[in-house]
Amino acid sequence: MEEKQGSIVLKPATALIEELAGSVKVPKNLRGVDIDEAIMIAKKNYFGRGAK
Amino acid sequence: MIFIDTNYFVRFLLKDLTVQYKAARNLFEAGAKGDKILFTSTIVIFEIYWLFSSFYQKTKPEVVDILRKTLSLSFIEITERKIIEKAVEIFESSNLDLEDSYNIAYSVEKKAEHFLTFDRRLDNFLKKNKFERT
To answer: Is the terminal CB of chain B with fewer CB neighbours within 10 Å at N or C?
Structure first.
């Protein structure tokens, strides 16, 4: 469901899948990395970022 | 019921490894058609947040967009979807991180009378936005 020019537009879930598939772009060198390893690195960096 | 882990969402959104992307997409399509019942957890949504904000260095608006895209897959059951959507809204419009935003959304959903914290930034936000119940 999305809002377009003040109207609510209902989209079939399959159309949404088509729209979202591959919709996030990342630099070439970060494509295809091991996601679980990346999550570990992300958590380490995120929580090690220091005091708020 | 089939549990969807973080890497399925990420491979689907990135489309960077064909085999895993296709596996994720096929599963999502089966879920969308009602052939399979899919669900995930709040922690998975947080892992997506940590991954894109830290490892992939996405900007805050980009991270918000990615979280909203993930949450828009309504055929995937997320018990706390409403709370997480509210948390993303707070995160987007404040200087709080998603964890604090989630705790506020959670406390509102649970109709907490007070939100007690020693975190000054969070406390200021709560006072400014009148999250205290009397």
So the answer is: C
